[in-house]
């Protein structure tokens, strides 16, 4: 959802991607490496062809140096995304169950490791369709704002970030209206 500059008081999509890069992901290393300690924790040892779990930022770094293959998360496949898209269309009042940072993680993986993913073009298309369906549902839900309550169950971090500035301003206006009608 593109917002005008004066409404962009939220975290940027690039910052959300950086936060999402802390998520653990499986890789198949192409090099051997002993256990390595970082501020965020110790990872390894890496022993090809055994799988290992690393933060996404480290997997991306190794992938760019051609030192690993990234294994797609369980939810990042055509069948699963088609199922979630069908749920989005079938249930207009609820969001399908997707990981909180699915948008950011899928973007990073499609940008860096599309050769490790099955049907990357179809994945991009499904993710775009999912995003559009969820945005339409979010916009429809914002039409029914109430100054006392809002449920955001099932929204991802990127979706919450996109509606946050509009939501904050809307809630301020609704609260002022509610207070003025009480007096």
Automatic annotation (TrEMBL):
The record's InterPro entries line, in alphabetical order, gives: GINS_A, GINS_bundle-like_dom_sf, GINS_Psf2, PSF2_N
Domain GINS subunit span(s) in chain numbering: 75-177
Q: Which keywords has UniProt assigned to this entry?
A: Chromosome partition, DNA replication, Nucleus
Q: Which Pfam families match?
A: PSF2_N, Sld5
Gene Ontology cellular component? GINS complex
Record carries keyword Transport: no
Instruction: Kindly give the Gene3D superfamilies that the UniProt entry links to this protein.
Output: 1.20.58.1020, 3.40.5.50
Question: In terms of domain of life, where is this protein from?
Answer: Eukaryota
Alphabetical GO biological process terms: chromosome segregation; DNA replication; double-strand break repair via break-induced replication
Q: Which cellular compartments is it found in? A: Nucleus
What binding partners and quaternary form does the record give? Component of the GINS complex.
- Return the similarity comment: Belongs to the GINS2/PSF2 family.
Query: What is this protein identified as?
Result: DNA replication complex GINS protein PSF2
- What species is given as this protein's source? Coprinellus micaceus
């Amino acid at each position: 959802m593109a917002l005008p500059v004066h409404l962009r008081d939220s975290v940027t999509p690039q910052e959300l991607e950086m936060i999402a890069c802390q998520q653990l992901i499986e890789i198949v290393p192409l090099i051997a490496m002993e256990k390595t300690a970082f501020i965020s924790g110790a990872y390894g040892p890496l022993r090809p062809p055994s799988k290992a779990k690393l933060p996404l930022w480290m997997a991306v770094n190794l992938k760019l140096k051609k030192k690993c293959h990234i294994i797609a998360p369980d939810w990042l496949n055509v069948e699963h995304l088609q199922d979630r898209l069908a749920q989005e269309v079938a249930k207009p009042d609820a969001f399908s169950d997707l990981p909180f940072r699915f948008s950011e993680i899928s973007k990073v993986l499609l940008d860096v490791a599309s050769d490790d993913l099955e049907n990357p073009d179809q994945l991009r298309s499904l993710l775009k369709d999912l995003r559009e369906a969820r945005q339409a549902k979010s916009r429809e839900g914002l039409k029914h704002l109430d100054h006392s309550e809002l449920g955001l169950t099932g929204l991802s971090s990127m979706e919450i970030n996109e509606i946050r500035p509009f939501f904050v301003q809307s809630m301020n206006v609704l609260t002022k209206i509610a207070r003025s009608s009480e007096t």
